[in-house]
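Lab notes, practical 5.
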Amino acid sequence: MSNPASTTTAKAPAARLALRLAALALLLATVGFWAAKGAHTGWSQNQVPVKQTDEITGIEFVTYEKRFVPGVEFLGAGTGLAGALFVISLLFKRKSTQPSS
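Output from the prediction step:
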């Protein structure tokens, strides 16, 4: 004899699970990429200022190195897209099975 409560509780459909896993993967990838590239809390930068010192005079000056540093808008866009995928996954209803008599 099976438990009726276990037959009414069904697992989420594959699309629902896939969207949630995609949202989690996107969130982790976004945060990981943002942190690995410098975790800049301002806007994204294509050029980064680098202080250098002249060897002869000892005067400090700034040069710009071409390098991409993702900012908070990159982090926000990735997090927002992951959140949207999660919300879309909530639109899929659980499969319901009718208990047999």
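Observations recorded by the TA: The helical segments are 4-8, 14-36, 72-90. The chain has a mean pLDDT of 85.
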